[in-house]
Each structure stands twice: as C-alpha cells, then as structure tokens.
Design brief:
It contains 24 helices and 22 strands. With 718 residues, the protein is of the alpha+beta class. The radius of gyration is 30 Å and the shape is globular. Helix 1 runs antiparallel to helix 2 and helix 12 crosses helix 13. Helix content is 35%, strand content 18%. Bound molecules: 2-(butylsulfanyl)adenosine (IVH). 2-(butylsulfanyl)adenosine (IVH) binds next to strand 3, strand 8 and strand 11.
C-alpha cells in the first residue's frame, strides 16, 4: 500500500470509530434519555470527524452524524405517493364504543377465540413514514392525505431520535417505519417564548408547532427545534433476497400483507437473520432494537376490561407526561389476525382510537378588547365569564387575529366553546349561534390604537394589524418590561406595576429615560417608598454592566430573540458595526435568515432608534463587546486567521456543500456574503459558476478552488 493509501485507511478506521462513538452517545442521549458522554467530549469527537471528512470527503457516508445538520433551504417539497397508504383510525369515545368494535371485528373473524390487545398512547403530533434501504434512511414523508405526502427527508434527518442507519446486522432491502413526530412540551414552550420575544404569533399547540416545523423549508430551523419521534408501525416489504442462512426458530416475515392492496406481491423474505415478529408487541420490540424510540407506556391486555383500565389510568396520568397525547390506540396484537381482518374503506378493522373527551367548556363572551403588544401587534382578546377547564379557571382567550374573528363571527354576548389547546393557551373553538341574544353587533377591529389613538395599519400580506406609533404608551410599556426582563437587562423590581406609573406620569418616554431617573422622581409614584426607590435606581445603574448581546436583545427588535441577539452580538462586535451592516452582511451570519436581517437593518435606519442608541451610549451602556474567539475543546482561544476576510461562494463545489464551506470559513473567523463587491477578499468557485465569477473578474478579485480554500483553512489552522 502506498503512503496515501495507508493514511486513508488509517483515517477510514478512525472515522468509523468516531461514528460509532458518536452514534452510541447520541442514542443514549436522545433515545434512552441517559447520557453517557459529556457534551464537550461529544463536540470534540464530532469536530474531529468533521475535520477528517473535510480532508477526505470520500469517507463521508449518509449515516454519518455530520449529515444531520440542516441543509440549505429547499425551495419546495416534492409530493410522494405512499407505497402503502397511511390509514387513519376509527374513533371510540367510551367503553360502549369499544364493546361494539370488538363485536364487529369478531363477526369478521368468528373462528378466533384467543386474542390479545396492545394499548399504546396516541401521541398528538404528525405522522411520518420513513423508508430505509439496506439499513440506511433514504426518505421521510409526511402523512399528507394518506395517499400522497411530502418528501421532507432533509428535515427528518435532523430528528436525533430517528436512526440514520438501522441497528440490524443484516437489514432487509427495504423497511418502512411509521410513527409520530412530536414536540416535547418543554421545547414547545421554549419555541413559543422565543416567538413571543421576537414579536411573532405563538403556535396554538404542540401539534401545530410540530407540523409547522416539519414543513419548514429551512432544515436548520428544524434542527434547532428539537423534534422527537416515537415509532409504532413496522412494514418489511416482501421480495428481497438475502444471502445469509435462516437460523433455527426464525420464520418468514410478511408484514406487508397487513395492508389491503398489496396481496398480489406475496413473495416472502427468505433468510432474514433477526427474530421475525408475529405480533405488534414484537414489532415494537424489534423497532426498539433497530434503534428507534418506542413509547414505553405500552401495555399488553387480554380483554376489554384491561384495556379500559389502561385508558382510565392514562386519562389522568397523561397530564404528567412531557408530551401531548389525545387518546389511546388499541390494536389487535396478532399480525396474522390483523391480516385476516384487513381494512374498511378508511380504517383498519384491527385497531381503534379511544379519544379523550375534549377539554372544552361553554361560556359567555362578556367583552372583546384588543391588546397592543411590544411590537405593536394588535390582538383581539375575549374576556369571558370564568369557567373551569382542565383544572384551571379560564377567563380570557386569544382570538389570534382579525381573520380568525371574521371566520368565527364572534360577538360580545355570544356563548362560545373554549378549549385549552395543548393545555396551554385557551382558545375559542366554536360559537353557539343558536344561543346568540338579539341585538349583538359583529366585531370590528378598531381603526385606531386604543392606547394612543393613532391609525392602525394592516400590511396586505400579513394577518396582523399593528400600531406603528413608536411612542405609543402600550408599546413603550411592553418595551420597558422587555428591557427590564431577566433575559435582557435583568432590572430587578422594574415590573409592570412601576412601568405603568412611569409611563402614565410621563417620567419615562423612551427606554433611555430610565437612566436619568432620580430617587426623588421615583418617590412621586404611588406607594413607592424610599428603600424601593433606592433599590430601583441601583438596579437600573447595575444594568449598565450587562453585555452587548443582552442590550441588543433588550432593544426588542422584531425577530431578534435572545438566541439571535447572542449570535449577532458575536458577529458584530459593536453597535456601529451592526448599524452599518447591510441586509446582506447580516444575513451572511450563520443561522440568521433574510427576514431577521431585514428587520434588524430597518430598525437601525429609523431616526428615533438611532437617537435611542446615542442616548444609551451617553448613559454608559455596553454597546460593544469582545468578540468571543473560537475556542478549542480545552477552552483556549484559537487564532482567527481569516478574520477580516470576506468570501463569496459560487457554483457547485466538488465535495463541500455550500453551508459546510460557509461554516468552515466562519469557524476560521471569515465572513461569507452572497454577492461580490469591492470588499470581497476571495471568490470560491465551483462548477457552473455564473455572474458572480464575471463580476469578480471585472473587479480583479482573487479566486479559489475548493482545494485551495481547504489549503488556506489548513494553513491557517497551524
Ligand atoms: S397506528 C393503521 N399508533 O393517530 C393504523 N397511530 O388517527 C395507523 N397516532 O395518523 C395508526 N399515536 O398519526 C397509531 N400509537 C399510535 C399512534 C398513532 C398517534 C396517530 C397517527 C395516525 C392517527 C390516526
């Protein structure tokens, strides 16, 4: 073997080792919920793998953990016809429905006297069909209408509890796994907090949030959102040939014949080398062995009484689960019996869903008022006669926006049904028009802001109506509360109570006024004592030492939540740098999209905001920070050799995806922008480069091939 060959095979070995280690750690963390490796160690190994794969791209495999990071945004998803339709389930609402169902299926299979049921929790998320070919995940498709769905493979790969490769020594040529993608409640809450902080409407419930996330065109956003997945169905299509011998006790697997329309393809799989499941229970176990997360709360029941007991238990216990469920799915355990029973037009005869009673209640809308948010978004709110719902008293519900109100035609005086969607945000689901009292008026969104009287605006392409008066007291109040909040400037004691008075009394007309407040002024507020006034002035003074990233977050720029603020503050070391940056410069930051970039850019163009920044600067706030240097695993700063250099990438690079090249450049301190200008240091050129290359030539900008770029990166790492 020559020297290059030897290096390759050594690296090949190490790459394999790293993948196994990372895969084990990731499985322990995401599937078993019991970590075996510290995050920093994982990161170190991950970067070692990434570096090797960059040097030897021929070693990249589709199941490498590095392939889970989001890819560049897709322009659209493609429709895919499901090989086997995704049926839905018949609903049962009480035990009488279950008894009727049992009688029905027993009439179809009168000779069956022994049977078992498997009870599974009905996870409230979005169904996915995953295809594995020779053990590798090749496709992830949404349910769609059950016949065709959308190919969202890129997004599916970011779900860490979905294996990229099946843990099977001798995988069948094709395996289809189905299950439910869902958002754990904690992730749902974080996402909604982020959205609210960024002035975006929150998701109504975790199901919508999961479905919305799965259909995100930018898989980097999906990767951030921490979706999870429980597998519950296994299909191994028949017809693949295998080389290995059948070991004793193994039987042929023929799960596809569960499905109504494929019986013609009845060619059994010979020689499979894994225990062939005969029952749904064994399928779940095999799925678990294959590396999937399978819901642990399943139960095998020998009769309907036991099924009922399971359902009763989970009716209350489900509130303690870290994810949402909306019922129990009851399936006949024997796959042979499932096959015998088959399907009706819509449902399998061998399964049914017991749905929990909806957590809904009727009440009366006493008043509809509008609420002005921090970003000026005006949302209608129903004030209702208090009603008990899922253990809490509900007296207000969001009506989301004017389109939703128009759709419902909800009016003051109406009797409505409210639901605690996702057990979190109460919403009005229905109006009982037949109970509408005479003389009610349709609700109309006010034309003027209820707080400042200025005209409201509604952009054509948005459902949201806004107050755009920067000095609207409602916007100012919410802005001040945000500024003082724990994640921003953390000004203890500056809550809603004082903010209202400060604004109403005219002591604060802009955030910067906080820094001019005196104890004497504060003492003019109702119920403010000497001690509290002193403390508040001190807390405001202390907030001057908060870092630049928090100041940026505190400004409350639309779409800039705490995470984005941190990212931007790291890339733009001072307010001047950010204020002068073009939309393109901002969007060049990894993880910052165009919409965010536009919003930040616009904010800094506004003279009132420029004045605010000047005053904050004079007051002594930190509007610049140290650029946090990239650190190695030992937390030592690494030199930033490409600092100050700007790259543009054009065409298709031979091995690196554009996002990967971008990430490598950024990790070395360089900047990547979209278009060529005089400021561009290098143009990285791939195949089929277009106008950017011409422009670079015209401007005399040096060009790099991918190999040269890698050389530059390697040299800079020394
Ligand atoms: S089995 C042919 N099991 O419920 C049977 N479905 O209304 C297919 N779901 O679209 C479904 N948890 O998205 C099954 N443990 C579970 C489930 C489950 C949630 C969803 C699934 C399906 C819907 C049926």
């Amino acid at each position: 073997m020559d020297a290059i060959g030897a290096a390759l095979s050594e690296n090949q070995q190490r790459v394999k080792e790293l993948r196994q280690l990372l895969q084990k750690a990731s499985y322990a963390y995401y599937v078993l919920d019991s970590p075996i490796m510290e995050d920093s160690v994982y990161d170190q190994l991950y970067h070692e793998l990434l570096a090797l794969e960059t040097d030897f791209p021929e070693l990249i495999t589709p199941d490498s953990p590095t392939q889970r990071v989001g890819e560049k945004p897709a322009s659209q998803f493609h429709s895919v016809r499901h090989n086997i339709p995704l049926y839905s389930l018949e609903n049962a609402f009480d035990s009488a429905d279950l008894v009727k169902w049992q009688e029905r299926w027993r009439r179809v299979a009168p000779d069956i006297h022994e049977f078992e049921y498997v009870c599974e929790l009905k996870i409230d998320g979005s169904a996915l069909a995953l295809t594995y070919e020779n053990g590798l995940l090749v496709r992830g498709v949404t349910r769609g209408d059950g016949i065709t769905g959308e190919d969202i493979t890129q997004n599916v790969k970011t779900i860490r509890s979905i294996p990229l490769r099946l843990e099977l020594d001798d995988p069948p040529p094709t395996v289809e796994v189905r299950g439910e993608a869902f958002l754990p409640l904690s992730s749902f809450e974080t996402i909604n907090q982020e959205r609210e902080q960024a002035g975006e409407p929150p998701f109504a419930n975790p199901r919508n949030a999961a479905a919305g996330t799965l259909r995100q065109l930018d898989s980097r956003i999906v990767a951030k959102r921490k979706l999870d997945f429980f597998a519950y169905t296994l299909h191994i299509p028949v017809g693949g040939s295998r080389q290995s011998a059948v070991s004793e006790g193994e039987v042929q697997l023929d799960l596809l014949s569960n499905s109504a329309d494929v019986e013609s393809e009845h060619i059994p799989v010979p020689n499979a080398r894994y225990p062939i499941p005969q029952t749904q229970w064994e399928c779940l176990e095999l799925l678990q062995d294959m590396g999937f997360k399978v819901n642990p709360e399943r139960s095998l029941c020998s009769n309907l009484e036991e099924v009922q007991e399971y359902c009763n238990r989970w009716l209350t216990e489900r509130h303690n689960l870290p994810y949402m469920t909306d019922g129990v799915v009851i399936k006949l355990n024997s796959l042979a019996l499932q096959e015998q029973l088959g399907f009706t037009q819509k449902f399998p005869r061998w399964a049914i869903a017991l749905k929990y009673p909806a957590e809904e209640a009727p009440t009366v809308v006493e008043k509809i008022r509008v609420n002005v948010g921090r970003t000026g978004a005006v949302t209608p709110l129903a004030e209702m006669r208090p009603v008990q719902l899922a253990g809490t008293t509900v007296s207000r519900a969001t009506l989301h926006n004017r389109d939703r109100i128009a759709e419902l035609d909800i009016r003051e005086g109406d009797t409505v049904i409210v639901r605690k969607a996702g057990e979190i945000i109460p919403e009005v689901v229905r109006v009982l028009y037949e109970l509408r009292p005479p003389g009610t008026q349709p609700f109309e969104m006010p034309a003027h802001c209820p707080e400042c009287g200025q005209p409201l605006v509604k952009p054509e392409d948005e459902a949201v109506t806004r107050c755009i008066n920067a000095s609207c007291p409602a916007i100012l109040r919410k802005g001040l509360e945000h500024w003082a909040s724990r994640q921003a400037m953390d000004i203890e004691g500056l809550g809603e109570k004082w903010v209202v008075q400060l604004v109403d009394n005219g002591l604060v007309r802009a955030i910067a006024d906080l820094y001019d407040l005196t104890i004497e002024q504060l003492l003019t507020l109702e119920r403010m004592g000497q001690k509290s006034a002193q403390n508040l002035v001190e807390a405001i003074e202390n907030s001057k030492s908060q870092p630049w990233s928090r100041v940026l977050y505190g400004l409350g720029i639309r779409h800039v939540g705490s995470v984005n603020a941190q990212t931007l503050a790291e890339q733009f070391p001072s307010v001047e740098a950010l204020a002068q940056a073009s939309i393109e410069d901002i969007a060049a930051v990894y993880g910052i999209g165009n919409e965010i970039a536009r919003s930040v850019h616009e904010w800094f163009q506004n003279p009132a905001n420029q004045a605010l920044i000047n005053r904050l600067q004079t007051a002594g706030l930190k509007l610049a920070g140290e650029v946090s240097p990239v650190r190695d695993s030992g937390n030592a700063p690494v030199n930033q050799p490409l600092s100050g250099k700007t790259f543009v990438i054009t065409g298709t690079l031979p091995t690196l995806k554009r996002e990967e090249a971008k990430a490598l450049i950024q990790a070395a301190g360089g900047k990547v922008t979209e278009s060529v200008s005089k400021k561009t240091s290098y143009l990285v050129v791939g195949e089929e480069a277009g106008s950017k290359l011409e422009k670079a030539r015209a401007l005399g900008i040096p060009q790099l091939t991918e190999a040269e770029l890698i050389q530059l990166l390697n040299a800079s790492g020394d």
